[in-house]
Amino acid sequence: xxxxxxxxxxxxxxxxxxxxxxxxxxxxxxxxxxxxxxxxxxxxxxxxxxxxxxxxxxxxxxxxxxxxxxxxxxxxxxxxxxxxxxxxxxxxxxxxxxxxxxxxxxxxxxxxxxxxxxxxxxxxxxxxxxxxxxxxxxxxxxxxxxxxxxxxxxxxxxxxxxxxxxxxxxxxxxxxxxxxxxxxxxxxxxxxxxxxxxxxxxxxxxxxxxxxxxxxxxxxxxxxxxxxxxxxxxxxxxxxxxxxxxxxxxxxxxxxxxxxxxxxxxxxxxxxxxxxxxxxxxxxxx
Length: 286
Ligand SMILES: C[S@@+](CC[C@H](N)C(=O)[O-])C[C@H]1O[C@@H](n2cnc3c(N)ncnc32)[C@H](O)[C@@H]1O
Hints:
alpha/beta, binds S-adenosylmethionine, S-adenosylmethionine-dependent methyltransferase activity, 14 helices, disordered N terminus, Rossmann fold, Methyltransf_11, SAM-dependent_MTases_sf, Methionine biosynthesis protein MetW
């Protein structure tokens, strides 16, 4: 069931920043032409995925985002899609009791790198109630006609702790970040608890930012670079200061030392991946 969708979406996520490589479409084998599928990008940010979806042939796109400045950027990037009524953007909070969409409004909903924003440091003890609430709303908003799908991409705890090259330099911040992330098995359980069926996941090895920028260790000195990795925001000032000092000392050691460090981390990344994408289906009840 839906194997083509599975392959296509994996390819889509694997080419996060190489939009031209993203091929094909969200064909979910329900005899609906691609241009009739309704797709919601939840927490769309500046809309990285919307252009990809459009290139794939999707013509009924919806996006919801909390942050006004993200929406403004997204609108700038996608002005023609908005004008041609292919795309509707809503400013809204995914944590509201009822999302501003009708029951069964979409064929596909994606939530990409948003979970850690929804959760707090007490999420592990509270059972990730925010994510559960959002998943319940997604289930309500997915249609019941043959098969619809939710796609959740997030970094698992081990991927944050061992996969990110800088985590070892900001251990307190990394530990805090992990408190906001469900374990992989728990994500599956939550989707199943929220009635999604045939839940499966894919390990995504590609990183979510441009690789040359991510592996430019000097970047850690730059506020804008650090802003691209939300874990840094959780680092106490002393920890950040110490991290900068240690990384700069490492850079000063020798280019070979840095190259070995980077290769080591690329190897780890290829072993454990940098994120997981979960797929959960809402199937038609006979
Ligand atoms: C890391 S960005 C990911 C953006 C986009 N999904 C992507 O993959 O390029 C997380 C986004 O989720 C948004 N966000 C966080 N909490 C939200 C909420 N409660 N409701 C709606 N959007 C939210 C943030 O404003 C931010 O734009």
